[in-house]
Amino acid sequence: MTELLATTDVGVRAPAPERASDRPLRLLSLWHIAGVVACGVALWAVLSPSGQELPFVIRTTLLVFFLGAVVMHAVAAVGVPKVRRSARSLSLAVNYLVAVVAITTVINIVGIFQGFSDIAGGFAKGAWLLVVALVGVVWWWGANKARDNSTAARVLGIGGRILVYGSLAGLVVYGTIGWLGHLDPATSADTSWNGDVGKGVAELVDRLLDPVALGAIALAAASIFFFRVMWSPDMAIRFGTTNAQSEALNGWLFLSPNIIGFTIFFAGPLLFSLVISFFDWDSLGQTRDFEGFGNYLKILALDIAKTDAPGALASEVLKPGYLELMHLDWFGQHWLIGARDRVFWLSLRNILFFLVMAVPLSVLPALLLSTLLNSKLPGMRVFRAIYFIPSVAGVIAVSLIWGDLFNATVGWINYLLTRARDLLPFWSDATAPVQQPWLSDTGTALVSIVIVFSWMTFGFNTVLYLAGHQAIPKDLYEAAELDGANAWHRFKRITVPQLRNTTFYVVATTSILAMQLFDVVWVLTNPPGSPDNATQTPVLHLYNKGFQESQQGYASAVAWVLFVFIFGLTVVQFRRQQETAGV
Amino acid sequence: MSVVRKGARATTVKVLSYVVLSLVAVVIVFPFVVAFSNSFKRADDIQRYPPSLVPRGPATREDPATGAQQDLYRFPDAEGEWAVVENGVSVSILADPDDPARTVTVLADAVEATGEKVVIDGEEKSLYLVEVDGQTVEWFRVRSTTGGLFESTDDPSVRRAALVLDATKVEEFAPRFANYGDVFNGKQLSRSLTNTAFVTILVVAGQVFTSILGGYAFARLRFKGRNALFLVYLGSVMIPFVVLIIPLYQFMVKLGWVDNLVALIVPFIFTAYGTFLMRQFFINIPEEIEEAALLDGASRWTILWRIFVPLARPAIATLCTFGFLYAWNSFVWPLVIINSGNKENLVLSLALSTLGGRGADSPSLVFAGVMIAMSAPVLVFLLAQRYFVENQATSGMK
Fold this sequence. Notes:
The complex is a heterodimer of chains A (583) and B (398).
Chain A: H1 22-47, H2 56-79, H3 85-110, H4 116-125, H5 128-146, H6 151-181, H7 197-208, H8 211-231, H9 233-238, H10 243-276, E1 279-281, E2 288-290, H11 294-300, E3 302-307, H12 314-317, E4 323-330, E5 333-339, H13 342-373, H14 380-392, H15 395-405, H16 412-423, H17 445-470, H18 474-482, H19 487-498, H20 500-515, H21 519-524, H22 538-548, H23 552-582
Antiparallel strand pairs in A: 1-2, 3-5, 4-5
Helix pairs in contact in A: 1-2, 1-8, 2-3, 3-8, 4-6, 5-6, 6-7, 10-23, 13-17, 13-20, 14-17, 17-20, 20-23, 22-23
Chain B: H1 2-38, H2 43-46, E1 56-58, E2 60-62, E3 69-74, E4 82-95, E5 103-107, E6 112-120, E7 123-132, E8 135-152, E9 159-162, E10 168-169, E11 171-173, H3 178-185, H4 188-220, H5 226-236, H6 242-255, H7 262-265, H8 272-283, H9 287-295, H10 300-311, H11 313-329, H12 332-337, H13 348-357, H14 363-383, H15 385-395
Antiparallel strand pairs in B: 1-11, 2-3, 3-4, 3-10, 4-5, 4-8, 6-7, 7-8, 8-9
Helix pairs in contact in B: 3-14, 4-8, 4-11, 4-13, 13-14
């Protein structure tokens, strides 16, 4: 570590001996200078006329990014030769980020993203390999289970592994062929799965030889190379990186895919959603008029007016732009309430009714049944599995099945009701078959949705409660039994209070799910929300506004209003749970 | 004494439990049974009232003469089964002038007019010679229409003309396995199946990869801002997906990823839930193992993939199961992104929804499609039950 002093007659210090890490250090410093130039070139490319073809958002992001990269490279170029500790982190960061952007650019140029349906086409052709892979998995698993080292187990294990890896490789090949086959624009009319691979390869080479592509590849390769150089233990020692710092660097590196995805696909859109909600924004982003809180006001605006005539029209009594929402008779006066977004308020009313009906129906049976299932009786596992199936079978499938059950003329629900009514003469004297139009009658449509939703979610909740049961100490029950408490008493005084936390979780998650009701209504009602807005939900309204009427700013505002409701409801439930827990 | 009573009490409770549990199980299973039976029915059989769980179809016999399939019928006034030998024959319905309620159906050209007429309700009607119950009588014609020529299956020489309305079809247990084939041949469902498999595999692989890395970082690597970042992740779970639909869509428009399967994959490779899951698991692994490996000079990467991951198999299996079910069954986002007219890029939930929307045309295909669509997630669930159930359960305790 210390420099050797070579004594000469003049007393001049000889230069320090060369260290192994000197050369990489020099290369790194040079690289950062080169990086400034390279990123500057990239910046210029984005600013150039061909760069102006990029969408505004992409272009701006790339501009900002490369500007930042230039700065970072410059600072690193200064700091690295001086072996400053912070320079190492900076160097690693800029190399990593530039590599990511460069690789993504290459992938984009090469057309992998755009050609995904072609890859899927190739995958479709090779889908039989999935069966092979499945066989391989079974063999592999079987070999593991055998646990012994017999030849059979080993063969099975190796064979299984070959099958699995082989079929995965095969699928990659199929996908690549599908992609290449349609890469050349001339093959876009070709509907076969493998198009013209030869032309595709030529097109690929062509695209890769494009200066932007070549530059990006070079940039990526160099960044990765120098990242690895800087990451090496030698550099770590040279820069005096402590163990703690090493750990921190590892931490950021490992977390980086997560963070990148989180920022690009969650945090960014979240903020953007808030921003859009203040604009009148259409789905292509062409119209962008700033509205301030206008969207929110339009959603929530209500007007109340007194009228003497119960049959008064909204247009006479309410302010312009307000549609009739409902009539009230209060304090002997007749009132007419209007709203600017009538459908929103109707959807809110519907979703509140839905909550009040569906949540108890999903939670209470789950609580009761979980208590029954909590016994040591044989077969409980089977029941548990059966109850869970509706939750995993898929909303569309389940909704289609129930749509048929609810059929007014030939559905099973009405048929079973007819049979029940015929068996129980005190119910009704009618003889004609029950033909209740469940989904087309404004009174029963929402109830039908409640039934489907509860049927789907209650099994899931039962399992949640079952876990809660595991946490209840057995001696509480034993003590109660000794005191003479019967089953109902034990349930009421021990089980329910002990399950308070679980109940909160179950009620909260079911409510959040219920407030976002969309797919069940979409499948079961035609058009969705009918009849006459009886099954309209906030998310459905959002979808209509955003994608049928192309008012995405407004739809974003609806989403945020709904979010406030959901959040508020959850907070209220949380508070209640805290309060009762304190008792 | 009290022991005996307790025993009896306990048994009633046991029996009652089973009864209640079974009743609920019936309520759960019944719709699936209906779907299963419907998936084997013919189109007209599904619209039958009263509904039945047994797929039925018309019984037929092979005509000894021509080899063609003939529908079989029964008549209320005759025994045995009758096959339709010929359709669309001209038949006349003749009635007794003394008792117009008595009628007989005959082939139009099998009867002759006697030339005499009779007046019925102020109208003149010709009389025809016809044999009824062994006697030859003169009856008038009520009307002419088209009917069928039926031949008795017991005695081929016995034939009668009749209106198809007057007979009831004979039915037999006739499941139509071709429904499943038809659904596949419609192209949409088979392509959407492979698309969904493709998307699901990539999403699950991506989620497992990023969650393992991220979970390890949160669990084992200390760095400034880790706890704050973790809280942010925790908070992100509270945000419902609804809020993200619009901006994500706009983003996809800008990227040119609308109507492209990429949009179903890349945004979902990152999952906060998955990261939590792996973090919870990794936190419980003893530190000594890691320290020993570090002393041996192993890099963090090696430690993660060679040591932690093999230990974390149950958690990874849970992650895979969850990811699979989420990706396979997702509907709202594909609905928003994929153009409904696009046949190549549909996923299963979309294809099924379209199939169901056209349910009036082909109700039997809808149910075959439903059974096919359901089989994958249900199968995965049944195989991976213990991971799914136990984990969902424990996560509720947090």
